Amino acid sequence: MRRDLRNGFTLIELLVVIAVIAILAGLLLPAISKAKQKAKATACINNLKQIGVAAQMYAEDFEGLLQLDAIIPDPNVTWGTILFTNLNLGQRDVFVCPAYKPFRFENWQNIYGIRRDAPTNCVRGPAGVFFRVDCVSSPTEYLLVADTTSQGVAGWTARNCYVFRVGGATKNVHARHSGRANGLFLDAHVEACNQPRLEALGVPTEYGADTVIGYFGL
Question: What residue segments make up the domains of the chain, in order of their start?
């Protein structure tokens, strides 16, 4: 008796189906990856907006001063600790860019970086840790908190770092979001800064992978 093959697939048909699925997967995967990256960049911007509100509230409560670091050096105390302790910011993850290591909060040194070379006439106290926020003439052009690398600190390769400096050649800021670095400015607006914007601000920026081995530079 002859077997009826009309309801089955031939080998060629099966190969065609597999090829079509592979093509569709090849088209969809980059789109999914891009959507994930965009979602992380948006989450990063939202984090910085919350930090901006907290920084403004802190300065209002402390006579226009923002504390940039611990008075006595302490690895467990940074600007982030100070804001978190004094204000209700919810989860500690708000201090970490979700698109870069450590991805989730681990410690108070691997967080977004705050600018640590404020104009000398705008700081006071031990090691200039207290910053007068009303001292800067153009707050819309003053990058306060940003996506950072760890290129200025020994032993922390490819990590967020809690401080950055505008002066010097060390690339402390990182344009990790499709060539843009998210930043909180002194007037509390948050901006996805592209290369021309960062160059105009005079910020040494890493536009590629953060693979430089760290060194003591901060």
Answer: 46-206
